[in-house]
Amino acid sequence: MPAHKVLLLGSGFVARPCLDILVKAGIQVTVACRNVETARKLAEGLEGVSPIALDVEDTAILDTEVAKHDLVVSLIPYIHHPIVFKSAIRNKKHVVTTSYVSPKMMQLDAEAKAAGISIMNEIGLDPGIDHLYAVKMIDEVHAAGGKVLSFLSYCGGLPAPEDSDNPLGYKFSWSSRGVLLALRNSAKYWKDGKVEEISGPKLMEAAKPYFIYPGYAFIAYPNRDSTEYMKRYNIPEAKTIIRGTLRYQGFAEFIKVFVDLGFLDDTPVEFLAKTSQPLTWKETVAKTLGIESTMEEDLINAISKATTFSSEEEKTRIINGLRWVGFFSDEKVTPRGNPLDTLCATLEAKMQYGPNERDLVMLQHKFEIELVDGKRETRTSTLVDYGVPGGYSSMAKLVGVPCGVAVKQVLNGIITDRGVLAPMNVKLNNPLIKELKEEYGIECIEKTI
After folding, report:
1. Regions in the chain scoring below 50 on pLDDT
2. Cα–Cα dist 158/247, whole Å
3. Residue of 109, 126, 130, 225 marked active site
């Protein structure tokens, strides 16, 4: 039987773990990036991997390449997925992505079914592993006649505690812009039987200390729209449903100051135009706050008027953190057109992982359950994983490996459902859980507490 052929679109940090799995399985892979050199770098040292240049916006060339393969892995930004899906439908080829299913993607469900193809999405970490173990526990509770009264799910990709050595306690393993933009999203969730909403500017004020294990000082805040999971996870009985993000304590207060000072704003400003003469940081802060003086004392006074601090101790901590970023310095900014992107340029330089540093992923579901006899109990499903310096980061592994496993299961006929899919039922999920645990040691540990 000839080897399966896969077209892998994208070269982000999750691509390599996925690619390694496919190569080990004897699958022939074509790695496609806009820049062929990027594709060559990803394919380096791997047998049976061919790098090519490809722009997915050129549908004729995309169709030609898709037609040569059995399946497409789309690890490019989600806004491009519909173009890829349509090509796959025309050519009757399967697709796997790690992205959330958008309404535009879901509109292609009937066409995908008619083409007889599987378009498997949401199979990374979050979304992905989180779905596998949420659906598993909820199905077990329902099968035993119980009810899920509350569902809390929090996930964080963070530096390991010993490497969280900057004022934000955070380092970038992916786009700094994406991380900061996510902090502007509003949140919506079920709480005690009512839908609550938090606007983007108030999101950091909603962050609260969250206990998982005594050795970690986490805060948690809700993320986007959790209300749809009442239907997606089939828990109409639940009174509370919150999915959110974990960070280390101190992060939210720092980000709130960035918001209050206008540094998460991506509205273009003339003094930060890419073609402008770079200002110093202290000049940039003064102009953003609308003051003339660039003296540190005056900048601190202006900052104190623009935001609030919970205590003098907190004010000292955050001002010291702003000093670390460079706010009061003669260091030149890298102007990127607006405050947000200009801040990103500096944070990217200061908040990268060092060569011997590692990341941490923490994922926990917490279920408040009413058993068939009326008794109540709390169950947790927890994944703690660390990256390996010089090897995969935890985040890359936990997104890339589930994606690679899903590709194998589609090609091997284990996943037989057709249409636009996500891991929302035990038929799809159980084989994925089994292979991830047995072959790769990836699992959530379930406990009753």
Report:
1. none
2. 7
3. 126
